[in-house]
Structures
1.
Amino acid sequence: MVTFLDDQEVEEVMTRNRKRLAVLGGVLLVLAGAGVAFAAYLSSGSGTGTTTSSVAVSSTISSNSSGAQLYPGSTSTYTVTINNPNTYPVKVVNIGASASQATAGGCPAATVTSPAVANPTGTIAPNASSNYPLTATMVTDPDNTCQGQSFTMPLTAQLASAAG
């Protein structure tokens, strides 16, 4: 069944709908105003910050044991100490290979060698030291002048930050 409205009823429905739209529009206007008021308290800014980085200080390597006495073809373990003068922990990445210098007694250079050591274990704390064992090997046919000599082994090490 279909019901038809007369002109007066149509006018009443339209008036009610206009009132509803007016109320809805007012509510939306109030909400929008509140949003603008809230947004008025928000702010942003820009600028810069400054900080500095430290400068790496080179470590030193020193021998703290000479190991067992060497003879032709023998191998001995000696210990070196690597210090970390930095304010952050470091890891020894490697200790380079080395060959002995010529001695004052006439023993030729490279009579004793020490192989490289990659990634020795552990870290060195800031302003601290750690010991590392190294292997020294005497050639199988050293010069006779090498008897009773002390061998100086120049060493290098690469260290990397172990922070974080």
2.
Amino acid sequence: MPSQWKPSVTVAAVIEQDGRFLLVEEETKLGLRLNNPAGHLEPGETPAQGCAREALEETAHEFEPTALLGVYLARSRKRSTGEDQTYLRLAFCGKLGAHHPQRPLDEGIVRTVWMTLAEVRESAARHRSPLVLRCIEDYLAGKRYPLDAVHADPSVLSGR
């Protein structure tokens, strides 16, 4: 019987301040790659909560999602196994909060970087996903959807 297709659900933050975007440089099997602050949605949290958590863990900045940018699909193959992977990404924009410089960054995150749009575009070969630039471009195009466009049933938060 064929295995069931199960995309990995991820959340990502597009954080802009003074014309620069906050990205993370992270160690991957393919070397150092750039990404939006992003990660896997965890049990018991809404996508907006997961996005805030990931932004804090990866950048040491508090982040409050205020709008959904979009829902994205991307597909790749693991180089180590050839396994086909599909990612369903929910990207948010919002308010940058306090920075906690003493807070350690998530495992694998080497550093955070603030980049202009031109620098993000020039570094496309180093992006972890083709969605890095796409999410930023959607942000700049003014795409915004209300947070309640993503409904989380109360059972999600209660862990049922």
3.
Amino acid sequence: MSDVPARWTEASVYPDMWVDPADDPRNTDGVSPDGELPTLQDYVASYRLTLRMKCEGLDPEQLARRSVPPSTMSLLGLVRHLAEVERDWRNWIVPDDPAPKLYGSRDADFDGAVGEQAVVDAAFADLAREQAATDAVMAEYPDLGTRVGRDGIALRELWVHRVEEYARHCGHADLLRECIDGRVGQ
């Protein structure tokens, strides 16, 4: 017997994919968005959905399962971390009245990711709320060249940073999920 799960996928057309393209909610028919801002918004939305897909069907213990020691990373920790990051981005835009940390001091987002249903429910509610709040603040600045906050960061840079942050953590989520139950990434 081995504790290593066998690799598997729900896809039948492409065995190295998460789901078949026809069943993938991230796939869109037609042309890509026109313009820089709609393209960035589309990428952020797709990565957000990817993270949720990587967490689907797992119980609280599985979501809280840590990667390899000494890392404290888990899927639940990633959800909590991204909620915290969304809040931080908003604080970059509106630095005069910063929202406090959601989970406390450094690494509390990962350290507090324990396998309890209430913690899981709160993490996903926090993420949805923080995403909506950050989206609302960023929508006030449709010109990507606008500089905001104390450091004068361009909205374009903030949007690209959001894509990068979600993409990187979705890569982590691929590996975490495969370690939990063998489900391959896409």
